[in-house]
């Protein structure tokens, strides 16, 4: 079954059963960590044009089919998707699953990294961190604050 047909069937089946579930958002993921999010209730139509998957909402949104790695349907309130946040300059935070990466960090420099729960407790802390990936598998679902030196970012698991 080709990719175009599979994506069509997946989207149509989700629209057909969308009112019976809490899934209100479609997220298309690319291999490079980029993602596109669409509110299912605001999508007027979906078409395939020139090797692109095109979503019509208040505007036309085309995504190259070759860039799409996966498509998931999630609830907006509990969506688990990559979180990209800017720390400043060319440094950004990318979460994939249970792993957090800080892109653009100079590994010759060290920092103190702390992860705080929503009630302010430190749930993980690393001194002398040099930019290595951070495993979050020991944390439950929820909202956390990641602090790298004096930069603070929100994480949603």
Largest sheet entry: 4 strands, antiparallel
Strand order of the biggest β-sheet: 7-8-9-12
Strand-residue proportion: over 45%
- Could you say which overall geometry the principal axes of the C-alpha atoms support? elongated
How many runs of DSSP E, i.e. beta strands? 14
- Percentage of helical residues? under 10%
Assembly category:
single chain
Structural class: mainly beta
User: How many distinct helices?
Assistant: 1
Explain this structure.
With 157 residues, the protein is mainly beta. It is 10% helix and 50% strand. Residues 16-22 and 77-89 have low confidence and may be disordered.
Could you provide a short overview of the structure?
The chain is mainly beta and 157 residues long. It is built from 1 helix and 14 strands, in the order αββββββββββββββ.
List the helices and strands and how they pair.
Elements: H1 3-17, E1 25-30, E2 35-39, E3 45-49, E4 52-56, E5 60-64, E6 68-74, E7 84-88, E8 91-96, E9 99-103, E10 111-117, E11 122-129, E12 134-135, E13 143-148, E14 151-156
Antiparallel strand pairs: 1-2, 1-6, 3-4, 4-5, 7-8, 8-9, 9-12, 10-11, 10-13, 13-14
């Amino acid at each position: 079954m080709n990719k175009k047909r599979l994506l069509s069937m997946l989207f149509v089946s989700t629209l057909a059963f969308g009112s019976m579930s809490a899934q209100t958002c479609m997220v298309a993921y690319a291999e490079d960590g980029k993602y596109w999010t669409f509110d299912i209730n605001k999508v007027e139509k979906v078409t395939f044009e020139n090797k692109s998957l095109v979503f019509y909402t208040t505007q036309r949104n085309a995504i190259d089919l070759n860039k799409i790695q996966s498509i998931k349907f999630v609830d907006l309130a509990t969506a688990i998707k990559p979180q990209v946040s800017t720390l400043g300059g060319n440094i950004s935070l990318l979460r994939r699953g249970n792993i957090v990466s800080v892109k653009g960090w100079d590994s010759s420099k060290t920092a103190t990294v702390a992860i705080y729960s929503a009630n302010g407790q430190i749930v993980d802390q690393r001194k002398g961190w040099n930019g290595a990936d951070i495993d979050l598998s020991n944390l439950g679902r929820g909202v956390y604050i990641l602090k790298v030196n004096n930069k603070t970012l929100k994480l949603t698991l």
